[in-house]
Amino acid sequence: MVSNTPIESNYDRESELKAFDDSKSGVKGLVDAGLTKIPRFFHHPRPIINEPKSSTLQTQVDIPIIDLKETNARAEIVENVRYAAENWGFFQIINHGIPQRVLDEMIDGARGFHEMETEEKIKYYSRDYQKKFFYTSNFHLFTGDAASWNDTFLSVMAPQPPQPEELPPICRNIITEYSDQIMKLGFTLLELLSEALGLKPDHLKSLGCGQGLFVLGHYYPPCPEPELTFGANYHTDSGFLTIVLQDSLGGLQVLHQKQWVNVSPLPGALVLLTNDKFKSVHHRVLAQKGTPRISVAAFLRPFHEGIESIVYRPIKELVSEENPCVYKDASLDEFVRLRRNAEGLDGKSALAPFKLDP
Ligand code: OGA
Ligand code: NI
């Protein structure tokens, strides 16, 4: 337990972090080196062993499932989306039209990248967020309070996709094919969400909510002490909509009515930015023993020239005397700055600093 860890006066967290970052081989590098105790900077202040068992629902009975089968009535789908987005901020999508082959190849491509020869892989290691493609471990390594047990690659696929040679050969074609498919599904979801808000189908699209696409390939190596850390700490996402593809291992949990609910493997989604009408769900990934877990998260987000200074505010059609603004106006610049300065991903809503007094 973290609280029982003896205080070592000579513990130099900064240099441990730096050595880890300089190795460029991420969490997988630690596991490959055969380590049996996780470094202290991965120790979470509120580890899973301190949580009451009752805080985790082992079943997934109630997780909303949206079935996009073409023969289903549109109005019914819209109603299901509205219910899920308002009550959960989360749903799983089936019959979405993306061929299983593409999903399988995307998981294999992400695995292939993270499992390639270290000498090859470290060429892509970076913390330069201007790059179109890079891999790193823990975006918040130096600012968060505890590191998480995963490595990630990030590929900016829209509005301007990278040049083919900017992408690693092992997943070059599949990232491109997967992104095309996800963009289509993303636009379908934007239409459904618009309608679920009582707006015209193209409303969210016209706000630019689907112009940018970031594809993140996560690799959660097996963890020797999974009870002391997380695969991904408790957070909400900062894009507009996230579509997650996970392999068959599980480990993703969403917070619903103060309980952590396991999300059994199926493609799923998360939502935000609707004056709190739709929830931005808190979620996390458990660290696990056994085999690596692979997931691919596609973030749809606004993206265009001058976007930093554009001011976002609750959709005016959704604001009335009975439903006053919950958030103040904010530019993306302010949002990103506050989020970067926040203490990593420790469970704070990305929108919390913008909340107006009740
Ligand atoms: C994320 C995320 C979940 C997962 O990328 O923000 O929450 O299952 N991913 O990897
Ligand atoms: Ni997330």
Textual characterization of the structure:
The structure is a single chain. Helix 3 crosses helix 6 (172-196) and helix 4 crosses helix 6. It contains eight helices and 15 strands. The two termini are 39 Å apart. The protein is of the alpha+beta class and 358 residues long. The protein has an eight-stranded mixed β-sheet with strand order 2-3-11-8-13-6-5-4. A five-stranded mixed β-sheet has the order 1-10-9-12-7, with no helix packed on it. It has a two-stranded antiparallel ribbon with strand order 14-15. Strand 2 (65-67), helix 3 (74-87) and strand 3 form a beta-alpha-beta unit. Helices cover 25% and strands 20% of the residues. It has one domain (14-311): Jelly Rolls (Sandwich). Bound molecules: N-oxalylglycine and nickel (II) ion.
Unreliable residue runs? 268-275
Order of helices and strands: HHEEHEHHEEHHEEEEEEEEEEH
CATH H-level superfamily title: B-lactam Antibiotic, Isopenicillin N Synthase, Chain
Structural class: alpha+beta
Share of helix, binned? 25-40%
Family: Belongs to the iron/ascorbate-dependent oxidoreductase family.
GO molecular function, one term: dioxygenase activity
Pfam family, one: DIOX_N
Keywords: Dioxygenase, Iron, Metal-binding, Oxidoreductase, Vitamin C
Brief characterization of the structure:
With 358 residues, this protein is of the alpha+beta class. The protein has helices spanning 13-23, 26-32, 74-87, 100-114, 118-121, 172-196, 203-206, 332-341; strands at 56-57, 65-67, 90-94, 133-136, 151-158, 212-220, 230-235, 241-246, 252-256, 259-262, 268-271, 283-286, 293-301, 311-312, 330-331. The chain has one domain (14-311): Sandwich (Jelly Rolls).
